[in-house]
Amino acid sequence: MAKAYLRRQMGEVIKTDIRSLSLAELKEVFVAHGEKAFRGQQVYEWLWKKSCTDFDGMSNLSNDLRNWLKQTFVIHPIQVEDKQISNDGTIKSGFRLHDGFLVEGVLIPADDRQTACVSSQVGCSLTCKFCATGTMERERNLEPAEIYDQVVAIRNWAQAHNQAPLTNIVFMGMGEPLLNYANVIKGIEKITSPEGLGMAADRITVSTAGIAKMIKKLADDEVRFNLALSLHAANDEKRNQIMPINESNNLKAVGEALQYFCKKTRKRVTFEYIAFKNFNDSLQDAKELLAFAKNIPCKVNVIEYNPTGDGQFEKADSSRIDQFCAFLDRNGIIARVRRSRGKDIDAACGQLANKKHDNALMNK
To answer: What is the pLDDT of residues 274-314, one digit of tens each?
Structure first.
C-alpha cells in the first residue's frame, strides 16, 4: 500500500503530501502497513489539530513508524518570509510555498478582534484594475493545507505580538476564492472542524468579485461561513471599467445570486466598496448602491483605498466617504467606514508578493 504513495517523475522519487489524504485514507494506509487503524487517527490529529509539520514531532509514534512516514510521505509547510509590522499593529508577510511561489497573509488587530486575511490563489486571473494582485498572472490554486497554514501562522502572530486569540478570518488576500472552490471549502473544513482548529464558521468571511453560479453553489452547499461581495461600483458601466469579471457576471446576475444565497442560508452579505476619488464616491453613486442593495439583506463596508503605486486611482476624501455612508444609513442600509490599515507597509493586496514575484519564478 505504501508504494502507491511513491511515484517516479523524470527519474526522481516523488512522495505524496500526507496532508492530501483524508482520515479514512490515513487509516487504510496504516492498516495496509500492518499497524492499527488508530495510528491514522493519531497522525491526523498531529497534522490538523496540533498543526505539526515534522514527522519527528509526532512523539506518540515509534521511531520506526516515524522513519517509515518520512520515507513514504512528505509535508509541505509554508515558510514565513518578509514579515512587516506597521505602526498601527498590522502585520503582513509573504508566505513562501514549497514550489517557490509567494502569497500574502495579514494580521489586522483591533480592540475587540484579531483578524487574519488569507490568500486562496497564487496570483489572480480577474485583472481588477485597482488591485496589485490583478497585475499578476494566476499561477496556481492553493491547496487546503496551504490555506490552513496561513491561518496557523497568523494565529501565532496574534498570540505572540498581542497575547490574544485569533477571532476572525477573511478570504480577502490574493486570488478569487470561488475559482478555487473545492480547496477553499476543504481548507475551511480543516479550520473549523473539531478535529482541526475548531474555529467557528460564522467568524469566517469569503470575499468574491462576483461569480454568480458559484455564489448559488455556496447556497446549495449550505455553507455556514459568511459571504462578502467586492462591489466597488453599482452600475455596470463603471464596474466593467474596473472589474472585467462584471462583463460575464453583471450586476443583475450577481444580485439574483445573492438574493438566492440569502434566502437559502438566511445570512446577510457584506458589500465591500472601495471609495475612489471622483470615480465612485458621489451622491449619485450612493443612490445607485442603494438601489442595488435595498432588496438584498446586507451591510456595506466603505473602504479607504490603499494606493498600489501606479497612480491610476486615488483615495477618496474622508468627507466624501462620510457623506456617502450617511446617505446609506439614512435610507436603511447599514454602512460603516473601514479606515486603511498598514499605510506604512506594503498594505494593499498583492503589493508585497508583486515585488517578489519575478524572484519567485527565477528561484523555481
So the answer is: 999 999 999 999 999 999 999 999 999 999 998 876 678 99
For residue 169 the three cell numbers come to 478570518
Domains detected in the chain: 2-74 (1.10.150.530), 79-362 (3.20.20.70)
Distance, CA of 46 to CA of 61 (rounded, Å): 11
Backbone angles phi, psi at 283, to 5 degrees: -60, -35
Which residues are the active-site residues?
104, 349
Residue 345 clears pLDDT 70, i.e. is over it: no
